[in-house]
Please model this.
Amino acid sequence: MLHPLDNPIWTALNSGSASFAFSKGTALFIDRKIGFFIGLPIYDAEHLTQLHAEMDYGIRVILFAPGFLELDPKWKVHNDHALLQMVFENLFINLPVDSNIRALAAADVPEMLALTKLAKPGPFFENTIDFGGYFGYFVKGRLVSMAGTRLVAGPYTEVSAVCTHPEFVGRGLAKLVLPQVVNYIKQRHQIPYLQLYPDNLPAYQLYRKLGFVERANLRVYSLEKYREGEQN
Model:
């Protein structure tokens, strides 16, 4: 039997994040105001062809595959990168007591958008906050570090949007904010998990210290379909 996180997007859009999903046939897409994700039951040539037929031109999608995909030239590939999946296994969470940390709400979205534009943790849109569980670290009223939740795949909830303003990198702020998100997930009787590029060593080391362990190697793709005659 497959593990829920072997195909995390597909699992999430069929379970805990189903309220954000829509379908045109084979693939499950996520609300475009929230993210670019799509899930497929299998990442073979047949299903990728069906996905291509269901997509509109000019739209990018992000998918997490179990390994390399053999992609037809009709795909424009914006990203093709190894992805390390980690799961939280600590029994205890040491929550920092810091008055600079608080839960984020809709009123904070403009600052969240500005921060993610600078720090580039991945796609973040005006409605991405709908996933919930966002916490931020403020310096003199300014949001400088944050993290939150994303896809809920069965009993697992994803930690995402972990980022710090470039001017504040190296001060250990993510180490202060992340436990708040982990605690938020655990209080909902869910298991935290996350994905990162394996060559992002500072992030990897931080997650290991907090209690995340390696679970699987996946691959992330960002795809768009070429318009007729557009290919070189």
User: Anything to note?
Assistant: The mean pLDDT is 93. The first strand starts at residue 21 and ends at 23. The helical segments are 8-13, 45-54, 109-119, 173-187, 201-210. The radius of gyration is 18 Å.
